[in-house]
Amino acid sequence: MQPGRGSAGKHRIRILAAACVSLALTGCTRRAVPVPPPVLDAAPGTSAPTAIAVLAGGCFWGVQAVFENVRGVIGVTSGYAGGSREDARYDLVATGRTGHAESVRIAFDPAKISYGRLLQVFFSVVHDPTELNRQGPDWGTQYRSAVFYANQDQKRIAEAYIRQLNTANVFGKPLVTRLTPLEAFYPAEPYHQDYVRRHPDSTYVILNDLPKLERLREAFPALAVEH
């Protein structure tokens, strides 16, 4: 078993793999949703050279991989947000009882990419924000869709954007993304970091994460970079 996925999840991956092969589908067919840019966004080029965003959208392997390939992003770390320091260990988080969500901390240059633009990528290609406490083969509160806002500006932008997408019925049903103040972020164990880059031949990565990178290139060709 690969580190980081439960046995039930792995069983479902095998079923999913068989279905994809039998139907000759690429990336299990999900394509980038044409999500409009946020009407309300941060002004470009703030005084700070680096800003931080913390987002949760299912397994952090694929979320990290996507944002590492976005122009203007300086660095991405997989980790845990929403729970205590004492419980910020994968074996505990995986129970779904610690309050944590698998998350990523994104350091970005606000002169090159805005917070709202990161959210557009998040909602377009990273995950399905209408799935409650699950993404693909992984389920539990630790895989919830969440925006951990670091300040009131981020909260205001995220609230307005979710309202905008719901009003336009972009996904055909309401978003379940939670808005939560960021109290702390705890980096995950080293074997979780850059997992997609280090394990491109993993069945899980092939089925669930590489298609996200393809959707990024498809939906945001000017924003996507290769690492």
Structure characterization notes:
- The protein is an alpha+beta fold and 227 residues long.
- It has one domain: 2-Layer Sandwich (Peptide Methionine Sulfoxide Reductase, Chain A), CATH 3.30.1060.10.
- Helices cover 35% and strands 18% of the residues.
- It has a six-stranded mixed beta sheet.
- A hairpin with a 2-residue loop joins strand 4 (134-135) and strand 5.
- It starts with 6 loop residues before the first helix and ends in an 8-residue tail after the last helix.
Overview features:
single chain, 7 helices, about 230 residues, alpha+beta
Q: The biggest beta sheet, please?
A: 6 strands, mixed
CATH class: Alpha Beta
The tally of beta strands, per DSSP, is 8
Number of discrete domains: 1
CATH homologous superfamily label: Peptide methionine sulphoxide reductase MsrA
Strand arrangement in the largest pleated sheet: 7-6-1-3-2-8
Please count the helical segments.
7
Described by the principal axes of the CA atoms, the overall outline is globular
Rg is: 17 Å
The SS-based structural class is alpha+beta
CATH topology: Peptide Methionine Sulfoxide Reductase, Chain A
Mean pLDDT: 88
H/E element sequence = HEHEHEHEEEHEEHH
Architecture per CATH nomenclature, i.e. the level-2 architecture? 2-Layer Sandwich
Tell me the span between the first and last alpha carbons. Answer: 27 Å
Low-confidence stretches: 6-29
Helix content: 25-40%
Proportion of residues in β-strands: 15-25%
